[in-house]
Amino acid sequence: MHRPTGTTSRLLGGAIAAGLLLAGCSSGSSDDAAGGEVASDASTSSTVAVNAGAEVEVSEYRFLPSQITIDKDQFVQWTNDGDRVHLITHDTPVDADRKFKSDNIEPGQSFQFMFTEPGTYEYFCAIHPDTMHGTVVVS
Length: 139
What we know:
Number of helices: 1
CATH architecture: Sandwich
CATH topology: Immunoglobulin-like
Strand content: 25-35%
Shape: globular
Distance between the termini: 70 Å
Strand order of the largest sheet: 4-3-6-8
CATH class: Mainly Beta
Radius of gyration: 20 Å
Largest sheet: 4 strands, mixed
Number of domains: 1
Helix content: 10-25%
CATH superfamily: Cupredoxins -  blue copper proteins
Number of strands: 10
């Protein structure tokens, strides 16, 4: 019978530990502070919102769909499916404490925002303001 050497045992043990760690992380959901579920962090994955009201594709110089309607206290998730950087923003604060503005959204990344107040929110890409506009209607 062949017994693994010290190096082989450490490598094998590390691979098993990494597999178990990944398996434990892939359960797919955790509760967020608002009582919904979040599948994963927006900075590492484009699959985020479980209680999302809508998803918007950011592709080259347009938002698809360009107008969406959601209920209050729901998320909208924008996913950059193109090959250019975008920055989604709204001119005025959504409520007294929060502005609706993303950081730069690189290709393959997502941004999500929870709308807590009913209203109509016009938004645009700050990098491409002449061509990229959208609307979120919150009921």
